[in-house]
Amino acid sequence: MGEKYFIEYYFTEILNNKLYQNKWGDSMFSRSLNHDNLTKRHKYNKKRSYKKFRSNQSNRNYVLIFSVLLTAIVVSVGIFSPEKFNYISTKLFNVLVDKFSPMYLMLMLGIFFFSLYLAFSKYGDIKLGKENDKPEFSNIVWFSMLFGAGMGIGLVFFGAWEPMSHFVNPLNAVGGSEDAIRFAIEQSFIHWGVMSWVSYAVIGVSLAYFQFRKGRKGLISSTLDPILENNKYKNYIKLVVDVLAVFITVIGVAASMGLGTMQIGGGVEYLFGIKNTFKLQLIIILIIAVIYIWTAVGGLDKGMKQLSNINLTLATILVVGCFFVGPTSEIMNTFVNGLGDYLNYFVSQSLFINPITSNEWVYKWRIFYWAYWISWSPFVGVFIARISKGRTIREFVLGVIIVPSIICMLWFAIFGMMGMDLGYEFAKDAITCTDTSLFKVFSHYKGGFAFSIIAIFLLFTFFITSANSAIYVLSMFTSGGSLNPNNIKKVVWGVIQALFAIVFIMLGGLDILQRFAIVVSFPFAFVIIGIGVALVKELKNEKCRKS
Questions:
Q1: How many angstroms separate the CA atoms of 359 and 390, rounded?
Q2: Which of 166, 288, 420, 427 gives a 20 to 30 Å CA spacing to 483?
Q3: pTM of the model
Q4: Considering the domain 59-129+137-546 in this protein, what is its CATH number?
Q5: How far apart are CA 291 and CA 429, in angstroms?
Q6: All structural domains of the chain with their residue ranges
Q7: Residue 356, Cβ neighbours under 10 Å: how many?
Q8: Using CA atoms, how far apart are residues 162 and 434, in angstroms rounded to an integer?
Q9: In this structure, are residues 167 and 420 in contact, taking their beta carbons and an 8 Å threshold?
């Protein structure tokens, strides 16, 4: 063995140009080639190389392996055993909504007040980056990018359908009445107002702070370092958190992609008579998958930025056009009154749950949405953190929460009122098919065909921007937090997202989405709490340095 070590070490040193200088600082040619010394040195270098190898094995490799394995298992079960998939998800759903629904309500309201604390406390002026860093994107581009990533397909899918659903089946009111209209707008504002953005804001500001100001990796687990620094299981906990973040990101985005695909197919069938079959939906997914993978590979500046601008343009055209073509006066009155009700009953509605009778409505709507926003929070939070370097904590939090919320509420006031203004019987018929409800509304207004075409294109672009940003974030998660992940990972995650979207379509669309969103978001709710605690702990150190 000694002769082997001697020869191996000698030629290795020559090839690496390290012969002239050894660990002890002397020239090897000035020493006798002592067999024992060379053997020891070889063993030392072998050991050092092994340690270096081990140290270079970061969690990113394990995150990639475990997350791909987990998603592959779930996709396989969904495709090859849909009955078992539905059975398991339904069982878990029933347990969670029965035992933990109040937790979701309290958590989201707590996150809201925590966001306000961050914005208006003495920490609000802290910059997300170095003191001389400037925002990479203008305010308009920034708003359009975070809006496209944060909402996207959901606005088009639910914009008319949800208000009409509440209008037809209100709580404690007669369907089709003025009280039903008021209830419909108030609940839509509750679901799509600030609560839909607060979880994004908390995760986003934490990531941006730790990454750009503290120089840590762009991973969800990195935000937990302040509370895990002395924990002997730190690495294992961080690994679990990162794998969980990857998994729920895939689920949340793929679910929205599935809904978007069904609605695009519904629009095509309604407008052109092409039957909305699974084959058509599969073709739509494949076409869009090619586009969003291509734009993701193109990078933020070339792909996402351009698509976000297209999104903003199309959405503006659609909203402005429908505002003037629809019942303008009723829309304005509804928006103002709904905003008043929203502000007046914000806390009570955010915590609304019936302590005695059935809470089926709460499970179907409120808990679903809170879970849905939590399932989207990892990737949206990471993405908006990535595009927010150089902004202050106050600017970030208020920008993420207020502006998009107002746009969402205006959106629901316009499209919801357009549907409800057509009457109870129309709304009752329109909500029977979620895929075509928006297009049925447009058909009763001047320029409806043009609005439908714009809506389909908007679905396409929202589809692409959501998937695009998710691909980028998933690649970051599985590349050790790199801001420039390689293109191979982008392609892999793009394909996985498309497969998951197909699974959700096969399993039944909205119903399975509601159940699965609640199931997968539950453990991440505790991660959000930990992120908030860790951020406050680190911000206190900022205070100490300033003083």
A1: 44
A2: 288
A3: 0.82
A4: 1.20.1740
A5: 35
A6: 2-49, 59-129+137-546
A7: 5
A8: 9
A9: yes
C-alpha–C-alpha distance, residues 186 and 193, integer Å: 10
Which pLDDT tens digit goes with each residue over 28-87?
Answer: 334 344 545 545 555 545 455 444 434 444 444 788 889 889 888 888 888 888 888 888
What pLDDT score does 499 carry? 86
**CA distance to 115, 246, 370, 539, per residue, from 206 (Å):** 11, 17, 20, 10
Residue 472 corresponds to which amino acid?
Answer: Y
3-state SS, 421-477, equals CCCHHHHHHHCCCCCCHHHHHHCCCCCHHHHHHHHHHHHHHHHHHHHHHHHHHHHHH
Residue 230 corresponds to which amino acid?
N
Question: Helix %, strand %, coil % for the chain, to 5?
Answer: 80, 0, 20
Residue with tokens 């986003």: 204
Q: Which two tokens stand for residue 399?
A: 């920008």
* Side chain identity, residue 279: K
Separation between Cα atoms, residue 366 and residue 196, nearest integer Å? 11
Give strand pairing partners of 360.
Answer: none
Here the tokens at position 70 are: 């987990």
Could you count the other beta carbons within 10 Å of the beta carbon of residue 230? 6
Q: Which residue has the tokens 């509601």?
A: 514
Measured CA to CA, the distance from residue 123 to residue 536 in angstroms comes to 9
Distance CA 55, CA 294 (A): 34
CA distance to 497, 514, 525, per residue, from 366 (Å): 26, 11, 15
Q: What is the pLDDT of residues 198-220, one digit of tens each?
A: 989 999 999 999 989 988 888 89
The SS3 call for residue 392 is: strand
Cα(320)–Cα(432) distance, integer angstroms: 27
CB 181, CB 494: distance < 8 Å: no
The stretch 503-521 carries a mean pLDDT of: 76
